[in-house]
Amino acid sequence: MNNLFTLDDKRVLITGSAQGIGFLLAQGLAEQGAEIIINDITAERAEHAAMKLRDCGYTAWTSAFNVTDPEAVESAIENIEREIGPIDVLINNAGIQRRHPFTEFPVNEWNDIIAVNQTAVFLVSQSVARRMVKREAGKIINICSMQSELGRDTITPYAAAKGAVKMLTRGMCVELARYNIQVNGIAPGYFKTDMTKTLVEDEAFTQWLCKRTPAARWGDPQELIGAAVFLSSKASNFVNGHLLFVDGGMLVAV
Ligand code: NAP
To answer: What CA–CA distances, in Å, run from 45 to 17, 51, 231?
Structure first.
């Protein structure tokens, strides 16, 4: 059974993985044997995160690039595959959040959200998938959200982008499954990270969240690792186009 979930011989690129959920996934997948490539915009932050993994005895590389820049993405993926080796698993994790009422939302912030949360998934996946298609093997995991399904006050552009990532996951699945590439999504509920800092500090929000979530608590980012191991391993070789909600039951409750 253990072999079903082993990630020995898997090389995993995780975008935006110098901190938060991306870094915890890097640690969790490395623990199962994966070789990790940490991505961040800045080389220093990526190197710092990779050092932490190496200190634990894991194999970690870095590739610093802005996931929203088409040329930077293409040249980084080419370099990774030439210098480090083929990418077996891609996790599209980089994301940003901005909060304003819909009627006040500045268009430049809308553009930033769409670029990082949506267009980057297209750009990085396309570049990696072209190479996976040739090898007829690969796994792509898109980090979606509760907001792939549900709207919420002040974060309409984020919900629009995460809804699009759900449909990118399904569309990519339809086009890539025939090449033995499994494309799936992980949709986290509410987890304590830098992105949710303002909500974590808001006691009224935490009270609302605990009432609204069947599990009656915040998620611990460590609790996303199991889903990522499953979707990266051969245990999920016939799982295609699925969104795995890790949300304490929030989506199924009114
Ligand atoms: P986080 O702590 O803010 O981490 C996001 C990471 O993305 C940061 O390391 C950030 O780097 C990186 N990033 C942003 N723009 C980038 C770019 N243009 N190029 C490369 N890297 C970039 O957030 P998180 O909570 O871990 O979120 C990770 C993912 O989970 C996101 O897709 C988010 O939407 C999703 N998610 C989170 C929650 C939650 O409860 N936390 C719930 C549902 C979904 P810098 O800091 O250097 O900018």
So the answer is: 9, 10, 27
Identify the structural domains of the chain with CATH numbers, from first to last: 11-246 (3.40.50.720)
**246 phi, psi to nearest 5 deg:** -120, 85
**What are the angstrom distances between the C-alpha of 4 and each of 14, 106, 233?**
21, 47, 7
- Specify the residue for token string 């069947």: 214
At 243, give phi and psi (nearest 5°). -105, 115
Residues of the chain with pLDDT under 50: none
Per-residue pLDDT at 162: 98
Residue 70 CB partners (closer than 8 Å, separation 6+): 123
Cβ count near 118 (within 10 Å): 22
Calculate how far, in angstroms, residue 193's C-alpha sits from the geometric centre of ligand 1: 9
Which pLDDT does position 1 carry in this prediction? 54
The rounded Å distance from CA 198 to ligand 1 centre is 15
Alpha carbon nearest to ligand 1 atom 21, residue? 16
Q: Is the CB of 68 under 6 A from ligand 1?
A: yes
How far apart, in whole angstroms, are the C-alpha atoms of residue 200 and residue 190? Answer: 10
Helices and strands counted in the chain (H then E): 10, 7
